[in-house]
């Protein structure tokens, strides 16, 4: 299970890095979102990957039978903040496109 999660994180980081290096704003925004998803997945994987284990402690049950609730709470918060920031950056990119007439990061069209 850990190898699958590590592979998914590596793919997300590689795709995000590729998209961040593009010259247009929308791929850069998607690349930053992929970086955010990779970071969320990494934090989630630090909380003991268990299947069907509750994050709430009960009397008489050993601690190995529980999932760590802190990474789960951090990921929930990070998802909400990441979604809000992505929406805000998209609005900024759209307003920049309307004002400048191009979606290139430097504001100029590339000549071939």
Compact overview of the structure:
Helices cover 64% and strands 0% of the residues. It has 112 residues and is mostly helical. It holds the Pfam family Oxidored_q2.
What does the model show?
This protein has 112 residues and is an all-alpha fold. The protein has a single domain (2-50, 64-100), classed as Helix Hairpins (Orthogonal Bundle), CATH 1.10.287. Helices cover 64% and strands 0% of the residues. The protein has helices at 2-20, 25-45, 69-100. Helix 1 runs antiparallel to helix 2 (25-45) and helix 2 packs antiparallel against helix 3. The termini are far apart. The mean pLDDT is 87. This is Na+/H+ antiporter subunit C. Belongs to the CPA3 antiporters (TC 2.A.63) subunit C family. It comes from Lujinxingia vulgaris. It is found in: Cell membrane.
Write the layout of secondary structure elements.
Blueprint: H1 2-20, H2 25-45, H3 69-100
Helix pairs in contact: 1-2, 2-3
How would you describe this structure in keywords?
112 residues; Helix Hairpins; 0% strand; single chain; mainly alpha
Regarding CATH, which class? Mainly Alpha
Topology-level CATH name: Helix Hairpins
Number of helices: 3
What is the succession of H and E elements?
Answer: HHH
Helix/sheet category: mainly alpha
How does CATH name the architecture? Orthogonal Bundle
Query: Separation of termini?
Result: 47 Å
- Mean pLDDT comes to 87
Write down the Rg: 19 Å
Characterize the main sheet: none
Helix amount: 55-70%
Tell me the β content: under 5%
